[in-house]
Each structure stands twice: as structure tokens, then as C-alpha cells.
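Troubleshooting log. The previous structure file for this entry was overwritten by mistake, so regenerating from the original sequence record. Sequence copied from the archived sheet and checked twice against the printout by T.R.
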Amino acid sequence: MAHRPRKILLFVNPFGGKKKGLKIWEKDVQPLMTIAGIDTKMLVTERVGHARDTLLSVDLSDFHAVVCIGGDGTLAEMINGLVLRTSRDRQIDPNNPEADLPTPRLPIGVIPSGSTDTVAYSLHGTTDVQTAAIHIIFGDRTGLDISSVHSDCRLLRLYASMLSYGYLGDVIRDSEKFRWMGPQRYDYSGFKKIVANKGYEGEIHLLSDPCHPATSTRCIKNCTRCLQHMHNSIPDKEISRWLTVRGKFFMVNGANLSCGCSRSPMGFSPHCHVGDGCVDVILVRHTSFFNNIRMLLRLSSKQKTLYDLPFVEVYRAREFTFRALPTLHMQSSNEISNRCLKSSLSVWNCDGEVIDSSN
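Regenerated output below.
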């Protein structure tokens, strides 16, 4: 009980998911915090990046934890803010891909109120808000891998759940036009992009780990693999090797978690470990509309996974790079307009936010 937080900084996103963040605070979370005797300073976010910017500047010396009522995007903002602040305080350059980014002093908690809430679901097996709040009240902790996304020697973002190029990138970009629809905008844009069945040429270089996701054990509390990594007993680059994969892809994904949710209980990579220092790279080849439907049905299954689909390749990697192949030959051709070049590229969906850099 010594690790229970006594004072927390809480961000409430009133716009995420079904826009119930404030209601969840008033009805479910505030009464529990009062009973537990936890002093809570609550801030309502007003714009994208509000939580991140606040954590970069506010005095955090009196707080024992930082918590949000929001989705994966709000959680990612807090992670970015705290890690960047800690890096700044320790004079570490986050734009250096080789830099060892520091772990923030304050633990981070999330009470789910977003559209998918993959982090909360992957950690707790549920998106029940009271379950998440009770874990925070008890001071329960677990390590969580965070990945950094770089382009041209510049840090673009840190992410906790998944980075995805192709289909999910197209969905998040298209859905921005239909925010008035709420979470249903993802279904609408998702249907459009499944039917469009667009593929993207690309080249992936990955530093593969010998532990393959399909044969790995499931990640559970105090799992051996994550504990070994925490104590630095898993060999790193000495037993890893670089692989190159080229082709036309419907989707390229880098998962830090299983990325399960209520609609996809098993997630993209059900054997993904939350704290082993690796990312599961899931490559979905561009094939047919029929295979796209097969993939969606697998994702909605409670028992089957993507691992054995013939057009899906899964790797466990320490790091990976992606290069969109159209840029290699289109930039030298004056006959290709900028519009054609842009249409041959997707964007990255990074914890529900758009990253425009393809490479």
C-alpha cells in the first residue's frame, strides 16, 4: 500500500469517443477517489496537444501520478509530454534515434473513454472504467514499452499501442471529415477503404528478434519474458539479425501491445509482450477484397488470430524502418504530378493520430 498515489493530476478529454469523459469523472471516478482519500487536480482538455503541452510546463513536484480519462490518443499525449520533459531535464536529445530515452518519475494511468481503448483493454482485459480506477487507487503498476517514431533525424511522436500505414492510416485520415458522426465515423471510413482495397509499395528493414510472435507465450502478469528484459537478461542485438521485406501492402503495423479491444478481443498480435523491448511487425500483403474480409473476420474472432493467414507476415523486432517505394522512381519523373505521387502514398495512424511522413 506504500505505492498508492495520494495526489494525482487528472486530464479529462470531453471530446473523445462518445464524449462522456466528464460524465465518467462525475459518476464513476470522483466518488471512488473521494472514498480512497486521493487529492485530484482535474484539468479538462480543450484542444489536441493540451495534455502534452501542460506536462511540458506545469510543476509536477507535488503529484504522485498522472492520469487521464480519455482514449489512446490522450494517453499518448501524456506519454509524449512526460518523456520529452524528462529528456529535457536530463539534457537528452529525443531527436537522436540512438538515444536512450529516460523513464518518467511519475506513473501514468488511463481510465478508458475513447473509441477503441486498446491500451486499457490489453492491460486489463476490459474497458470498464471502475476497474481501471481501482487499479490506479491501489497503485498497481506494470512496465509498458514505448516506441519512438523518427523521420529525417527528427522525433515525430512516441506511441504506446500501434503505428499503422496503409488501410488504418487511410481510415484515420478519411474519418477526420466525419467527426460529427462520433465513433461511427471509423466504421464508415473503414467500409469505404476496405472496398477501395488500395495497396502501397514499400520496403521494410527490421532488426528481428529470435522469438517469433506465433510461437511465443501470452503476456501475463509477472511474465518471464518481460521480467527478463527488465533485468537485462535477454540478449539484445547480438542474437538479432536484419531482414528486408519488399512488396505491395494493404497494411504495415508496428504493435507494442496485443491491440485488443471489445470488437477485436485477440487483437492484431495476441502474443505481443508489453515490456520485452520489442515491437511486433504485422505485414498484410495487398491481395483481394475477399482476403480483406477474411482478415476483418479474424480480427473479430475470440479464438483465431491473424498469424496463419497466408497473406499476413508477422515478425518480432527491436526496431524497423519503412520506406515508401514510389518515392524512389516517381521523384525523378517530371511526368508524374504531385497529385499522382500523393495518391500513391498513405499516412501513418499513430495511436489514433495522423503522421503525414510516409518514410
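Residues 116 and 315 are 24 Å apart (CA to CA). Archived copy saved in two places this time.
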